[in-house]
Amino acid sequence: MTEKYLSYSAILVLAANTMNGPGITTLPDVATDAGLLLYIVLIVLSVRMASFVCQRMVHAMWCSLDDVAIALTGREECDSMNKVEIGVRSLSIGVDSEVDGSNGGKVDEMIPEAATFSDTLTQLHTTTQSGEETEVESLLNPTTNLPPIFNTTQPLIERTSIVGQSKEGYGSPTSTYVAFTMVGSALCLALAQMMLCAAILDGMFVVVGGKSCALGWPSLGGDGESSGWIHCTSHSSMKPYRNSGAPVSLISIGWLIAAAISVTLGTVDLDEMMGVQYTFFACLLISCVRFAFVLKRMTNDLENGGVGEEDASDVNTGNALLSWLIGPNPFQTVGPIMFNFAFIVTAPPLSAMAKRQDIASRALSMSCVVMGALYVMIGWVGAPISNAVRNGLIAGGDDTNLMSLILLSGGSAGVPSALDLLCIGTFGISTIASVPVYCLLAQETLVNDAGVAKLPAFLLSNVLPWILVALTYNASFFEAFVNWSGLLILGYANFSLPLLLDMRLKNVRTYRSMHHKSTEVCNGESPSKRRTNNRASGYDTNRVTSMVFSLVTASISAVIVMSIADSLILAGVVFVFVMLATIMWPSASMVL
User: Fold this and answer.
1) What is the pLDDT of residues 329-342, one digit of tens each?
2) C-alpha–C-alpha distance, residues 322 and 307, integer Å
3) How many angstroms separate the CA atoms of 258 and 272, rounded?
């Protein structure tokens, strides 16, 4: 099997593209609620948290290639290999003894695993001595006819994915629930991203052509007449068909373009789509830099009285005051900022295709840094305009979404510049980059863990989500469904579960290596030396990981409670309770 590799830059770009989700368009509003200083602090903490989780996940994956982990995959396989090697050597001696007239036939009785090689070796010996030596050397080669895990220099994704790790750490029943969680996480991410892609493209068509049209079931108007199959809108926003009289299910122009690109990319492997991924990433960078320039110019115009309905001095007075320290709703911004880094469930395929562990770890961490810097830039320059829209200081402003703010840059003319429209379009195209990665996660989980055939798995992961988006494109409840499902699933799946598995696998693998009697024979390293190294290297790491796991899990739980109950006191109680529960929970950190 030919191994495929992703370079450092390829992993970085793919990971960064998966973080280019709907959350980035809400950052100006989030920065206004948090306050600029707190916003930056939360971004920095989220970058550090996501980087740490990625590093531990990569470590857990690549430890499957460690000698102990290889031995753990099957004691019987390893013992059988040892017997075969001993048997082959004995057969070689036995064949020579048979030629000399001595009895070598008892070898088959001594080592049954070697019996199948007897005829082959005897035949080879009767031909040429060189042929015998060549074949014997081949049989003695430890990489000949071994299971795939023994032949690879990369982690096998079916064994080292989050589902595979849960199976190793907790068994098959638990891995089934984790598989459902992974598919749910991928679908939550994909559906939200698909809706964003289609909406941005439709909004761009409205601005450029004056309207965007979609195919939908005919609906009855107020006069009782059917509206026909074609529904058009001239409203340029992130919900272009809202209040247009169009039905819930629509196939729009933006949907067609986004779905065609996404499904096409879903038919190729990650390493084969890198040219497109680099292009999408360049589109993201160029668009965000342009957006930052436009928002900064709008802020200057607003301060100078060039834009707005009220006096420009109101920008820095009264209710329009933008906080530089802590904003009006700081606790409601933790979740949106944290979930902008909820890409970790898609990282295992990227890590498994790296050439070395350090490449995967450094690339994933750097992608968090790059996107964190991008998030800081967008939130910092967009907050003043978002705050002005909230306070009615910009004519026509009714939405604080990033795309809506850029559409306001046209001022009294009402139409942004051609360059701004181009950047809106390129940003919309760039958001498609993450969809194939999300779909790949769902597809591999269905194939490797649910036993679904490749074609049905492709249709379920790449085609069915787009159908769901079309069926609910103009539904008001769809956005709420995606947001709540993401809130309840993505936080734990991306941040808590990888850390829990890392701690669990470290103990499971150490325990098994201590009791695996054939480790010394298979690996050539003393079991006592391995135990000492594992204990020395793992104690401090486990303690730090346990602390981060408790803090992250408690924070996610508090965010969920805050979103549901809108009670800071209740959220604080839940935070303390979960912290104590996870610290005292023995299943992850127990000494087996």
Assistant:
1) 888 888 788 888 98
2) 17
3) 19
Q: Which two tokens stand for residue 137?
A: 């050397």
Q: Dihedral of CA 55/58/60/62: which sign? A: negative
Average pLDDT over residues 384-394: 83
> Does the global pTM surpass 0.90?
no
At 323, give phi and psi (nearest 5°). Answer: -75, 135
CA dist 439 and 83 (Å) reads: 44
Collect all residues with Cβ–Cβ distance below 8 Å to 218 and sequence separation of at least 6: 226, 227, 228, 229
Contact criterion met (CB below 8 Å) for 305 and 312: yes
Read off the DSSP letter of residue 308.
-
Q: What residue type is assigned to position 388 of the chain?
A: A
Q: What are the DSSP calls for 523-541, one per residue?
A: HSS-HHHHHHHHHHHHHHH
Give dist(CA 165, CA 185) in Å, integer.
17
- Beta-carbon contacts of 373 under 8 Å, excluding residues fewer than 6 positions away, are none
Between CA 142 and CA 43 the distance in angstroms is 49
Q: Give the C-alpha separation, 280 to 258, whole Å.
A: 13
Angstrom distance (rounded) from CA 395 to CA 131: 87
Q: Which residues of 346-373 are buried (b: 16+ CB within 10 A; e: fewer)?
A: bbbbbbbbbeebebbbbbbbbbbbbbbe
Min mean pLDDT across 6-20, 414-428, 570-584 is at 414-428
Between 568-584 and 527-565, two packed helices, what is the crossing angle to 10 degrees?
Answer: 160
Residue 321 DSSP class: P
Predicted local distance difference test score (pLDDT) of residue 242: 74
CB 243 within 8 A of CB 250: no
Give the DSSP letter string of 471-513: HTTT-HHHHHHHHHHHHHHHHIIIIIHHHHHHHHHHHHHHHHH
- The two three-digit tokens of residue 371, written as one number: 């996107």
Tens-digit pLDDT profile for residues 496-510: 999 999 888 888 877
CA pair distance 229, 390, nearest whole angstrom: 37
Cβ pair 71, 522 in contact under 8 A: yes
Q: Are 292 and 378 in contact (CB under 8 A)?
A: yes
Tens digit of each residue's pLDDT (9 = 90 or more) over 172-199 = 888 888 888 888 888 888 888 888 888 8
